[in-house]
Specification:
The complex is a heterodimer of chains A (342) and B (406). With 342 residues, chain A is mainly α. Chain A contains 15 helices and four strands. Chain A has two domains: 73 residues, no CATH class; 230 residues, MetI-like fold (Orthogonal Bundle). With 406 residues, chain B is of the alpha/beta class. Chain B folds into two domains: 178 residues, Periplasmic binding protein-like II (D-Maltodextrin-Binding Protein, domain 2, 3-Layer(aba) Sandwich); 203 residues, Periplasmic binding protein-like II (D-Maltodextrin-Binding Protein, domain 2, 3-Layer(aba) Sandwich). Helix content of chain B is 42%, strand content 15%. Chain B is built from 18 helices and twelve strands. In chain B, the strands form two sheets. In chain B, strands 1, 2, 3, 4, 5, 10, 11 and 12 form an eight-stranded mixed beta sheet that branches. In chain B, helix 2 crosses helix 13, helix 8 crosses helix 16 and helix 16 packs antiparallel against helix 18. The two termini of chain B are 32 Å apart. The chains are: A mainly alpha (342), B alpha/beta (406). At the A-B interface, strand 2, strand 3, helix 2 and helix 14 of A face helix 1, helix 3, helix 4, strand 4 and helix 16 of B.
Chain lengths: 342, 406
Amino acid sequence: MPNRSFFWFFLPAGLAMILFIGLPIISTGIQSFYAQHDQILVKVKKCDPFGCKVSVVVDQEATSKIKGEKPLGKFNGFGTYVDRNHLATNQVSEFWGESKSIGEFVNKVGNLPFYKALVFTLTYCVIVTPCVLLLGFIIALSLNAVSRKIRGPLIFGTILPMIVTPLVGSLVLFWMIDAEGIIGANLQIMMNDPYLSVKSSKSLTWITIIIYGIWHHSPFAFVVFYAALQTVPQEPLEASIIDGASRFQRVKHIVLPHIYPVVTFVALISLMDNFRVFEPIIGFSAEGSAQSLSWLIYDNLVNEEVILFGSAAATSIMTIIGISIILAPVLIRTWREFRTNR
Amino acid sequence: MKKILIALSFLLFGTYANADCNIKSGSINILANDFPALRTLVETAKECKGSADFKVTHSAEHNKIAVPALTANPSEFSVRVAANSSIVPLMNADLIRPMNDLVKKYGKGIQDSQLITIDGKVMAVAFMANTQHLYVRTDVLKENGISTPKTYEDVVAASEKIRAAGKMKYPYAAAYKAGWNLAEEFVNMYIGHGGEFFKAGTAKPNVNNAKGVATLNMLKKLADLSNPDYLTHDSEAIKVEWEAGNVAIMTLWASRSGTLLDDEGDAKITAATKLVAPATVGGGNIPAATLWWDGFTLAKNRSDADAEASFRAMAHAASSKEMVAKASDQAVWLVEGFVPGPKSVGVIEAVKMGAKPYPMLPQMGLMHGALGSEIVEFLQGNESAEQALKDVEAAYMTKAKEQGFL
């Protein structure tokens, strides 16, 4: 496609991206550098059905005047980024000084909200992504090998986890692992521990969410791999069979190299998706044991009665940076290949 | 406190509220939490919608919608049914309007004790009171020779006895879901211990002390007597546990008693369920509970005509003697003419015992949020009480700084 026609072809999508993704990201970035103005509190008499007392409220007149002058709030620079609820630079260096061992230091840092969320997010990403790729590939290979007659229903059954709404899917599992649900109760009997609770144990909750993640994302990898498998040329495969290659050798030396670009694509998308893990935490009511970066943003925006825009914006920007760092190796590699191919 | 006793028990024949409040114009759009008493109230308000446009949203997620929806201009809702905690963010952001004029003009049936005034400005009109108190299964207690618990120490002893008798595995229940619910239980228990959340006259946190530790230890003892999934249980979940007959003693909202004691479910359990006073804790004499009011507020970013129409409809409901007579078991109404029934015991006892209202401070929401997430690790046994409280204070201070309170 000549550059000119590509430009016109891309224009509508590009405009929409700037409007709905680019500008909001810039606005988020700007907001992350601001904090609220100092609250001006005044003492007033408050009366309710339970009696009167003197207490404080926000002075609206004074506040609206300041807000009129500086609607964004007080410039805070990187203040929000480095405070305790985010990168916590002061706390981390303090812990470094007072900790006697690396283990103690890691423990203390892991107790800070941002790092706690980061650890879960990365664990989820690192375990779920390869499992999804592997499982998706195995399913695609095996389905590609079964008779065409039953392939249709089998494919439908396989992509069901992706069709089911994430929240519904996680709720179903949530009820199954309840202390009185089918999995939870059986675990109690098997472990001979009537107080065993999958939901209140941190490690079991993590395992549940990770298993759910693999279950939910594998169909996506499967669908893409299955489509790619259809394009594998038959001649080299037949030739290799004549040469006496085993099934494993055929997959390793012919199929995989052929669908390699697709594997990269699926890996990229899965990494991005998994880094933003969110729904299962809500679905499993797992806020107590597992927090992700996306959940922190959600928490700042809705869980408090006071909305923390600055905090949410800072976490969002750091999530974007995190995704870029994770994707960087894959992107650089793709870029290099693209250059050598030209 | 005196006022509410008067409001609750006085039966005075005042002027009959004008039911024919035929509203000619304006549009009314209500945002409210979702429980039976509020549905009744809104239905009553609808009676006099006349030719006005009338819409309502009942949602358990009302807290998440309210501030953004009322910030818009014109705002989505003209009325927000709020409580003492949820009115604070609205006032902090200047989203609701004073209604002194409207009260004077149309609020004939509303009693003075129903008015929430800030510096003389009427910011809300309350219509019901609420608190969390104990529910007990009389049959189970009797079987095990236990008298009605008066303190949380009694609750622990009774629950341990029931568990030891092999009657129930998890005899106690309370809404300990991580987040808002768990923080609310901490607030109750901390107030029961006589704690103050902030250093006097400042927004500096004050929970990392002996009272805070005692509070956490009591919560942990109770949690150990609850279903092990307690960190995922909200009010609705423990209500289901109760109806399934798994629980003998429970701390729950008074406003939930309506659906708990309806005809659905096991009649034997319903018959044996008794509502009693909230418990005290740690030798204190005020209950480990907070008093709440539910009332309506009017959005600032709406036309005066809409505010007027909304006020007239809501005032009709908030002063309707017919409604409180018909729905007397749904809530403890603050409306004139309400006769307390057996389901009002919890709230009335709480008031008599001198329970404190939930602190209506601008920075309380931040404290509540910090509590909800930072004390979880203590309950899971991963952290000491002191460390958890230190984390609460640190998390709160960071947020309070960002919001300009410190």
